[in-house]
Amino acid sequence: MNNCFILLAAGKGKRFNSKEKKQFINYKYKPLFMHSIEKAKKSKFFKKIILVTNKKIKIAGVNVIKGGKERADSSLKALQYLKNKNIRNVFIHDAARPNFTIKLLKKLNKYLNNNKAVVPYINTNNSTKYVFKNKIVNLKRERVFLTQTPQCFDFKTLYNLSKKNKNAVTDESALFLDNNKKVKFIKGEESNIKITKKIDINKSKIKTFYGIGFDIHKLVKNKNLYLGGVKIPFHSGLEGHSDGDVILHCIIDALLGALRKKDIGSLYPDNKNKFKNIRSSKMLKPIIFDIKNNNCYINNIDINLICERPKVSKYRNKIINSLSRLININKNIINLKGKTVEKLGLIGKESAIACETIVSISKYE
Ligand code: ZN
Questions:
Q1: Do 359 and 250 lie in a common domain?
Q2: Which pLDDT belongs to residue 10?
Q3: Percent of the chain with pLDDT over 70
Q4: CA 317 to ligand 1 center in whole angstroms
Q5: Which residue, of 169, 203, 237, is where some domain finishes?
């Protein structure tokens, strides 16, 4: 598939009114432009991904090239860069539209088989007027097309039109229309809004979920003690099918709770030999992947480790650092408390360690 995805992120964002250019502001927990890059990668439609920007950055699997003065200049620079690279189709997208779906890419790609230009549009609900020869005239709103991006084109045709173009155009489909060339317009997505002003950022809905976890393991001789992925010198280790890491098991259960996906036992049944002696950090991995893949973000994790010894204060930083690495979250959203039980019961006699955890996860709709 000789498709290329061109992401335009060199704009000045005059209407945005912020020190940081809008394409780089944090949006839904990542830089605005990264949403488009990640979707382009995930779609697997593209042989090449090009980011046109004036910022000096490096992103794996992405060619970064310097932008021009206006949008059309940036677009032409990207096309020039592709000149001898055997590219058949280009998808041109504005970084300010982070909310398009992979489904839309699929649809555009399908229509590109029989067309040289495919462009998504939406209609407007507003009554529409047009200034024409000093007069304001009514327009039929169902005949008004608001065009969006990504727009996709046969590379050669677009490149030739762009090279010749002398007009200031705000999208590539304008070049086709100006030259009386056919554009296939398809229904776009209402949610594919353009982030133009600061107020647009708050237009997405957030849902928050909570999850709770509890776990307890017996302490046994001749086993290493693992807590939160950290090996801790102690007289015993935690019994269990895996390494017995109560903190990680507890976090897994809390995360599954917030994701509404049952519990650790249904994911890793202890009658299955393949999970025997598995490190708990390995058990955590697919869940963290799932969270990221579903556009969910962890807000915070609060942990109570219940044991007489080891002293939590001695290992707190190590454990938090390890959790931050394993879960891929900032350590300032993790809290770890140590609770003793006044030497009472099994935990008090250092025969067991227990843990409880609560997490909060948000999802952007
Ligand atoms: Zn456990």
A1: yes
A2: 87
A3: 95
A4: 22
A5: 203
Residues 155 and 222 occupy one common structural domain: no
* pLDDT band at residue 203 using 50, 70 and 90 as cut-offs: low
Phi, psi of 181 (to 5 degrees): -105, 150
CATH of residue 277: 3.30.1330.50
Distance of CA 249 from the midpoint of ligand 1 (Å): 5
Average pLDDT, the chain: 91
DSSP-assigned letters across all residues of 305-327? EE-SSS-HHHHHHHHHHHHHHHH
How many whole angstroms separate alpha carbon 323 and alpha carbon 317? 10
Q: Ion ligand 1 — residues with CB under 5 Å?
A: 215, 249
Report, as an integer, the average pLDDT of 106-117. Answer: 95
How far, in Å, is the centroid of ligand 1 from the Cα of 245?
6
Q: Spell 20-55 as b/e; 16+ CB within 10 A means b.
A: ebbbbbebbeebbbbbbbebbbebebbebbbbbbee
Angle, helix 280-293 to helix 246-259, in steps of 10 degrees: 20
pLDDT range class, residue 102, cuts 50, 70, 90: very high
Look at 14-18, 61-65, 322-326, 352-356 and tell me which has the smallest mean pLDDT: 14-18
Q: Which residues lie across from 354 on neighbouring strands?
A: 216, 306
Residue 179 lies in domain? 3-203
Helix axes 32-43, 102-111, angle to 10 degrees: 60
3-state secondary structure of 352: strand
173 burial via Cβ count (<10 Å: 0-12, 13-18, 19+): buried
From ligand 1's centre to the CA of 217, what distance in Å? 6
Residue 92 shares a structural domain with residue 52: yes
In a shared domain, residues 216 and 310: yes
The conformation of residue 133, written as its DSSP 8-state character, comes to T
The alpha carbon of 354 and the centre of ligand 1 are apart by a number of angstroms equal to 9
Q: Which two tokens stand for residue 335?
A: 């809290």
Higher pLDDT, 51 or 204: 51
Rounded to the nearest angstrom, the distance between the alpha carbon of 222 and the centre of ligand 1 is 18
Q: Does residue 240 share a domain with residue 163?
A: no
pLDDT higher at 327 or 28:
327
Ligand 1 centroid – CA 292 distance (Å):
24
